[in-house]
Amino acid sequence: MSSSDFGKLKEMASARLDIVILHSQKGGPGKTTLSCNMAHELAKRGNKTILIDLDIAQPTIQHIFKIPDKKIKHTINDILMGKKKVSEDVVLKTKYPNLHLIVAKENVEYGEGLLSLLEDIQQYSFFALHEMTKFLKRMGFRYVVYDLAPGYRMESVNAAAIADARIFVIRPSTFSFEGAKQMLRDIYKKLDIRSLSFFVFNQLPPKLKDESQKLLEDWKDELIKIYKPDKITFLDFLPISFDVMEQGIKGEYIFPEDSILYEKLSEMVDKVIQNIDEMKKNRA
Ligand SMILES: Nc1ncnc2c1ncn2[C@@H]1O[C@H](COP(=O)(O)OP(=O)(O)O)[C@@H](O)[C@H]1O
Ligand SMILES: [Mg+2]
User: Fold this and answer.
1) Domain carrying residue 183
2) Overall domain count for the chain
3) Of 70, 126, 142, 242, which is most buried, counting CB atoms within 10 Å of its CB?
């Protein structure tokens, strides 16, 4: 590379890259739905944003953004296994301005194929994620949103370790709550060096009895108490929405702007980016 090429690259590079991950202990609370909508909102506000599918065993993001197979040369799978160095041909455009993707491979070989793939990824992912962060910064990205696999998979935990903001998504059920407590206490607290944690309850019934509402408020307080209260932030109680379900039948996943979920999501994005800004300002 000539020195003038290098100059160009440096000009493009973003001065700051913030990493947001969405995680849960159990499957299904809404990580993918919320990560797509958060990345979409960050991009809509003019930030060059990339959404990365790290849920290798259940890839979804290619489908959500309707990316045809022929557009995909490489996936996150190759990078996480060290088969391919991260480069521009992994990054896909979407129909939304400023919103880019790295997708996971949809047609993996099942049985032995999938198991050995998952094992290789576990080994290499920490290094791969670090390399990816450096590369995305050079490409001028301002935000990276990782949609993670649930539970204790190594690449999820590694992504949680390098994130600036970790959003934990919880369903309103005792086992989802117990899982969240366990994960926050056993993993996140220990990784908590330079990042912020957030949590959100999703898929609440629209009309809660007072008694249930009170229980949820208690869970919220308990989660804050078992964690370092100055390092964890409660985001919101999000309702289950039949409109979102109906949209899913039509293959639409971005919340319409006149919906309550959009309003709440937009406030969540405000809170998360304000907290990251403050953390980074204090650190500087
Ligand atoms: N607030 C909500 N209202 C209605 N449906 C929702 C809501 N949040 C998520 N869903 C639906 O729940 C299912 C699981 O959500 P998903 O985002 O795939 O969860 P995860 O990625 O955590 O497994 C999807 O069908 C999604 O459309
Ligand atoms: Mg998911």
Assistant:
1) 14-283
2) 1
3) 142
